[in-house]
Amino acid sequence: MKVVRCEAQDALLKKLLEDDHLTEEERDVLRWGKNITSSKTRTTKRAGVAVYNRASSLETLIGYLYLTNLQRLEELMRRLGFSTGASSELIAEMHMNFQKHPSDTQNSDNP
């Protein structure tokens, strides 16, 4: 499953940010999650620290919403295409975009 890779999570986060679907509180959680220290792993070497940190911030937001507002989590996941039949198409589209422009995910410094 490619969606568990930090590059895919980074792309999902960018979609939420570009579409302006996050509240200020959710953006605060992203900033908090982004600032968690990451170790020098193979993942950070492959994708870059910025991509890894943004992916970690999305994971933090998902965990936060899972614990505090499951309905909001489900809403955001649907916006990202995680519903019956839609998630496979979204994942395939993101993978194709990443293959065409892998450097795009490494150059952005936004959360």
UniProtKB/TrEMBL annotation:
<feature type="domain" description="RNase III">
    <location>
        <begin position="2"/>
        <end position="69"/>
    </location>
</feature>
<dbReference type="GO" id="GO:0004525">
    <property type="term" value="F:ribonuclease III activity"/>
</dbReference>
<dbReference type="InterPro" id="IPR036389">
    <property type="entry name" value="RNase_III_sf"/>
</dbReference>
<protein>
    <recommendedName>
        <fullName>RNase III domain-containing protein</fullName>
    </recommendedName>
</protein>
<dbReference type="Pfam" id="PF00636">
    <property type="entry name" value="Ribonuclease_3"/>
</dbReference>
<dbReference type="InterPro" id="IPR000999">
    <property type="entry name" value="RNase_III_dom"/>
</dbReference>
<dbReference type="GO" id="GO:0006396">
    <property type="term" value="P:RNA processing"/>
</dbReference>
